[in-house]
Model the fold of this input.
Amino acid sequence: MGCRLCEVYCITQHSKTRDIIKTYKGKGPKPLSGLYFEEIGHISFAIQCRHCEDAPCIEACLTGAMFREKETEAVLHNKEKCVGCWMCVMVCPFGVIKVDIENKKVASKCDLCIESEFPACVENCPNEAIILVDEKGEKIEKK
Amino acid sequence: MAKVKRISEFFVDRDESKCIRCQACVRMCSNDVHIYDEEGDLIRSDDLKCVGCHFCEEICPTGAITIRRNQSEIKENYHWKKEYVYDIIKQAETGGVILTGMGCDKLYKNYFDHILLNASQVTNPSIDPLREPMELKTFIGKKPDKVEYNIENGKISLKTEIPPQLELETPIIFTAMSFGSISLNALKSLAIAAKNFGTYWNTGEGGLPEELYPYADRCIVQVASGRFGVNIDYLERAAAIEIKIGQGAKPGIGGHLPGEKVSEEISRTRMIPESTDALSPAPHHDIYSIEDLKQLIFALKEATQYKKPVGVKIAAVHNVAPIASGIVRAGADYVAIDGIRGGTGAAPKVIRDNVGIPIEIAIAVVDTRLREEGIRNKASIIAAGGFRKSSDVIKAIALGADAVYIGTAALISLGCHLCQKCYTGKCNWGIATQDPYLTKRLNPEIGAKRAYNLLRAWSLEIKEMLGGMGINSIESLRGNREQLRGIDLSDMELKYLGIKHVGEAW
Done:
């Protein structure tokens, strides 16, 4: 519906305090959201990393910064190892990896909110437009 | 003054300490109330445009927004209410009829609030619906005068042919709201909920959209004065057919769906050219008497081979009891009566607020009249118009209704906050609009769940109340006015309601 609350909650989730007001009004740096919001006319959607089965970004990564987390099989990014070659950005078929030009690093991509129980964008979408599905396409509900 | 400065009805109270400038309110408001000022990194509000629908309040992630009534007051005057003064100012400016949406909001006596229910004590046992069976199943349709049966070899078979019936799991039906007045997503939400719960929904006069064919077996289709979307497939797909004569919010008045709302999909469903106004004449031009009505009822029955109930919906007006009697004698399987509190997508305010009678009285007088004439079994009564809670439903049934229609309550379950701006087509909740940007805000999966929950909750409450009365089936409460007592009512009101005053024993 184009409210872009997914971005708000993504940013909050990946901030230091995880408090929405402190994240936005505090002095600390505000993280980038891990998703892209697209809108043409009345059609809008949010797209984030699809966590591909054969992720080209993992293949393309020189240093192993882009890796698959064993337990959840999510595609994650390790900033320490990243050298900022941006090959992952080049090969991503969905164009959902954001770059940090200043620090020559990959700035942000969706990590499925691996540190918390459930993706913040899915949990907070007021219209259930964003849903979490397994590899068979079946909906995963929050426990 | 050529133009009097309008005073806003509401104002947006924004808590600056909480506002994070995410601009969700700016993006979402269809009335353009919220404006982002880049220069000062501020969000300003144009309060004059606010209709009080509370969508921004709902969407604001930090709870920074509170919509309040504007406190600018005129001198207190019991006779000249603020609303009347501002209506005159508006009319002095425009010279037009004031339009509105939803049902009558004026302070006429609400009889439901003056009726109390009975409960069992000592002399008859109450029933716990959680432990004992409790029946809410309701059948809508003509009931035979007597039941004859054969007994052969100990087996009983029915000799009497039972006329077609609608089988309801709960005595609550979603009322007629047309595709056009509400969005497809809203209609779909209700259709799914009705089908899943085992009750019915009503197409209204806007035809049956193709997307809702899977729910047609749980659908009552309307044949109204505009005859929109009526053809043999439409009649055959439906569970029942309803001839719409009138509507509680605007008795005696037709309908007008403006051309802007007649999208490609609506034009196909209503079978009219795109972008043309959809006009429903005030009367059916082929019905000027009960005899004419009888012809249409039987034309529809003939067309559907007498397999479906055919009902007639009228607005509750002064002469409602004789009219209902005529309708039953004309062969209708049910009579739907819509009271003064009944809602609408658009009606002249003066009509909505001044024409018709309360549904409570209408149910009572129609039920009494049909009983007196010995024809009560020949048709069911469906009551409509402002049912707010399960106790209203149970009181209506005890007064004599077979089932009730809910419209406004159903829309509230989908998000409606009663701003009464349905006629503008700018409904932020995606209900009373055809703007694709707005309609998609109502996810029919979520809507269906919420409408279903409403039916479930009310049904559970009705069972609780029935149990308290020691009744285990809604059938036993129908027209059982001994279970009701009036409080703070005059002798005349008690007489028309057909109930006793509190304190009076059986």
Remarks:
- The interface with chain B takes residues 1-5, 7-9, 20-21, 23-25, 41-42, 124, 126-129 of chain A (CB under 8 Å).
- The mean pLDDT of chain A is 90.
- The two ends of chain A are 25 Å apart (CA to CA).
- Residues 5-13 of chain A form the longest helix (9 residues).
